[in-house]
Amino acid sequence: MRLADGHRYGAAPLLTVKVMNSSILWTDVGPRDGLQNLSATVDTAVKVRLVRGLLDAGAPRVEATSFVSPKWVPQLADAADSG
């Protein structure tokens, strides 16, 4: 998924750290995991600003949403609208 400003979600990482012949990939899951735990629904535009802010702050990869049943996770019902 790509936004108009060129950021890609779910794409190859921009930052990989090598540690003793292993790689560590930092992925921020706050928008996906954190927002689904709120009792209120957050507007799609606010979610997009949150993800862009995380990327602008240096997060190399962000999991923005998940395609789940709105019946079970209404906070992520706009998953198809956010890209």
What does this structure look like?
A two-stranded antiparallel sheet has the order 1-2. It is elongated. The N and C termini lie close together (6 Å). Helices cover 23% and strands 7% of the residues. It has 83 residues and is an alpha+beta fold. The protein has a domain at 26-81. The model has no long low-confidence stretch (mean pLDDT 79). It contains 2 helices and 2 strands, in the order ββαα. A hairpin with a 2-residue loop joins strand 1 (17-19) and strand 2 (22-24). The protein has helices at residues 30-35, 44-56, and strands spanning 17-19, 22-24.
Care to give the gist of this entry?
By secondary structure, the protein is an alpha+beta fold. It has helices at 30-35, 44-56; strands at 17-19, 22-24.
Break the fold down into its secondary structure elements and pairings:
Layout: E1 17-19, E2 22-24, H1 30-35, H2 44-56
Antiparallel strand pairs: 1-2
How many helices? 2
SSE string: EEHH
Instruction: Specify the structural class.
Output: alpha+beta
Overall body shape:
elongated
Uncertain ranges? none
* Beta-strand fraction estimate: 5-15%
Radius of gyration: 14 Å
Short key terms for the protein model shown above:
2 helices; alpha+beta; two-stranded antiparallel ribbon; single chain
